[in-house]
Write a structure and sequence with these properties.
Layout: E1 4-10, H1 16-26, E2 31-37, H2 42-52, H3 63-71, E3 79-83, H4 89-98, E4 102-105, H5 113-126, E5 130-132, H6 140-150, E6 157-165, H7 179-184, H8 187-190, H9 195-211, E7 217-223, E8 234-240, E9 246-252, E10 261-268, E11 271-276, E12 282-287, E13 293-296, H10 304-307, H11 320-335, H12 341-344, H13 349-367, E14 373-374
Parallel strand pairs: 1-2, 1-3, 3-4, 4-5, 6-9
Antiparallel strand pairs: 6-10, 7-8, 7-14, 8-9, 10-11, 11-12, 12-13
Length: 377
């Protein structure tokens, strides 16, 4: 396939996630980042372009300038990566979609549910592709879990537990010059969810990806343990599913001693699966009445979701960057007409809306002193 020409909004010098997007895009040689609005600061924007290897003339001062400038070129960008704080996603995505560009957007899709719903309409109206980088669905063993649940190997699903906990906001980092903490704890920039928006949407998305279904109701208890913090930094959530299954979810950014501890366990009438993001190449499978069985990335009994998502032989670890790159590779197949979004189960605008519905339901429930609420408002 010819390489897809990418523009980028945000993700300049000092951005963790911007670098991740670029590494993921380049890993399989399917994209070139050739233009961008990398920062609202002119000097940082220029310096970022130099760092990345983008021509100075294609480091634009605004999204509108990038769209106009690229439309005049024979080698114009075909898609745009949005790697900005949440509150800037909607306008950037809207402008790019309406200019005929495909969009690859970091999560959550927007800061508010209303914007997410409106953006879904814009995606439908323009007919352009919209991809959302819920990168944990790119892990081979997560895709194997999905395959095994769909094949009925666990029987009827009864219970699940998702736990995504960190400790980097244990102290008021938003008042100590940490830019990532500043906007993530500001409701005008992050939206109504703190930890539930930042990492809770990942846990929620992974659970729906693996199970192939969403909960109908939830009960949430949101806490802001750091004095003066305006958004939640810890959440305890119960889930109910229409088939009678139950779920629990713990999300925290104040769990001292945890770096990026993301675990997912699901149990059915015939067996159970257990996976940890910090040991992502292994998956424990237990059939009722039998010993635990260790399944591995690219190993024996690997499903197609597993084997189609790896680059090197079994026993050679792959992780976060490769999982992220799997989404970019799958998106490239769609953009070049080699596959469809649904066939590859790529997260997109619908999953983005569902993530904001989850955040909204958590806030509604917690505000009502932990009442059960419909996930759909």
């Amino acid at each position: 396939m010819t390489r897809i020409r990418l523009g980028m909004v945000g993700g300049g010098r000092g951005s963790f996630i911007g670098g991740v997007h670029r590494i993921a895009a380049r890993m399989d040689g399917l994209y070139d980042v050739v233009a961008g609005v990398f920062s609202s600061d002119a000097e940082r924007n220029k310096g970022s372009a130099e760092d990345i290897g983008v021509e100075a003339s294609r480091a634009y001062g605004s999204i509108e300038d990038m769209i106009r400038g690229e439309q005049a070129r024979a080698d114009a960008i075909e898609a745009v990566v949005i790697a900005t704080p949440n509150h800037l996603h909607f306008e950037a995505a809207k402008a790019c979609l309406e200019a005929g560009l495909h969009v690859i957007c970091d999560k959550p899709v927007t800061a508010t549910l209303e914007d997410a719903i409106e953006l879904e309409k814009i995606v439908g109206r323009t007919g352009k592709h919209f991809f959302l980088t819920h990168n944990y669905t790119g892990y081979p063993m997560v895709r194997q879990m999905r395959d095994m649940v769909a094949a009925g190997e666990l029987g009827e699903i009864r219970t699940l537990h998702a736990e995504y906990v960190q400790d980097w906001l244990t102290e008021p980092m938003e008042h100590r010059g940490a830019k990532g903490a500043e906007w993530r704890t500001d409701p005008s920039k992050s939206g109504a969810g703190g930890s539930i928006g930042d990492i809770g949407t990942h846990a929620y998305n992974l659970s729906t990806f693996v199970l192939g279904r969403r909960p109908s109701h939830l009960l949430a208890d949101l806490s802001s343990f750091v004095p003066g913090r305006r958004l939640d930094d810890n959440a305890s959530i119960l889930l109910r599913y229409e088939n009678g299954a139950k779920g629990t979810m713990w999300v925290s950014q104040v769990a001292v001693g945890n770096e990026n501890h993301f675990t997912f366990r699901v149990y059915g009438s015939k067996g159970g699966l257990e996976w940890e993001q910090e040991d992502p190449n292994r998956l424990w499978f237990t059939q009722y009445g039998k010993p635990k069985q260790l399944l591995t990335r690219g190993g024996a009994q690997a499903t197609s979701g597993n084997t189609d998502s790896i680059r090197i032989p079994a026993g050679h670890p792959e992780g976060f960057l490769e999982a992220f790159a799997n989404l970019y590779r799958d998106a490239a197949l769609v953009l070049r007409g080699k596959a469809t979004d649904r066939k590859l189960s790529l997260p997109g605008i619908r999953e983005g809306v569902e993530g904001l519905e989850f955040v909204d339901a958590c806030v509604r429930s917690s505000s009502a002193n932990g009442a059960w609420v419909d996930v759909l408002a």
